[in-house]
Every structure is written in structure tokens, then in C-alpha cells.
Amino acid sequence: MPACAGRTMRCAGPPLRRERCAAALAIPLVLSACAGVNTRSADGEPVRMSHDEFAEYAEQTFRYHNRVVNDLITATSFGEESASGNAALLRAEERMAASCQPLNNMVTATIEGRDLSYFAKIRLLNAVPECAAASRAVEARVRDMF
Questions:
Q1: Nearest-angstrom CA–CA distance, 32 and 74
Q2: For residue 21, pLDDT beyond 80
Q3: What is the DSSP letter of 77?
Q4: Residues 6+ apart with CB under 8 A from 83
């Protein structure tokens, strides 16, 4: 672990120095807000999108994931015998739950009016396509049940 781990950067000193320090910290944030994001599609293909496009992709993935969860609940309530003995479906469901957790946390934070940490937002770049892929796998297994 680097020696600086756990330390926070502070702008201390005379007012002019604080203003320069704050500006130095703010400039990369402003520039990164203008840049696009590199992520992957659910198929694993690298894609570059604007922040707005990624937000739309995340929302579509969240809605898709919820639809798959609803289908899973419906399917397992009607076919409990086949679902409980389907180890592949259970593994796929567990993987989907773990893969989609960061996305679900982001949605919960947004609804509650909380802001996610920078690192939580960065994790979404991988979590959203992983959630989409894991949801696809569950959807395919649910279809195979019937």
C-alpha cells in the first residue's frame, strides 16, 4: 500500500494559496466531466460514450435487470420444483445479484439524494456491462425452464 494511502489532500495556507490549490483540484474534475467514458457492451466489446449516453445505458440496464428479476420470480413461483433443482440457474442468479449490486447501490443512492463516491462511480464502468451480461444469462436460463 502506498505511503499516501488514507490521506486526504487539503488546501491550507494563505487565502491566495487556498484558491490556487482549490482551482488545481477542480480543473481535472471539470475536464473529466467533458470527456467521454470508456466501458464495454454486454457482449464485452469496448465502447466509448458520453456521460449522458452512459447514464442512459446504466438506466436501461437497471430496467432490464429488474425485468429479468421479475421474470425469475414469476417463473420460480410457477415452477418451484424445476427452479429449486436447477443449480445452473441458482449460480446465474447469484452472479447476477453480485454483478448488479453496484448499479442497485447507485440507484438507491440517487433515490435517497446521496452522492456516490468517485470510486463507486468508476466501478460502475465495469459493473453496468457485467450486470447486463449476467442478467442475459439468467434470462436465458429462465426461458430454458419452460
A1: 43
A2: no
A3: H
A4: 75, 76, 89, 145
pLDDT digits (tens, 9 = 90+) for 25-74: 444 444 345 568 888 888 889 999 998 999 999 999 999 999 999 999 98
User: Quick one: CA torsion of 91, 97, 98, 101, rounded to 10 degrees?
Assistant: 180
All three cell numbers of 48, joined, read 466509448
* Cα 57 from Cα 6, distance rounded (Å): 33
pLDDT digits (tens, 9 = 90+) for 95-112: 999 999 999 999 999 899
Q: Are the CB atoms for 66 and 104 separated by under 8 Å?
A: no
Quote the CA–CA distance of 84 and 130 in Å, as a whole number: 25
C-alpha cell at 20: 490556487
**Rounded distance, CA 19 to CA 65, Å?**
45
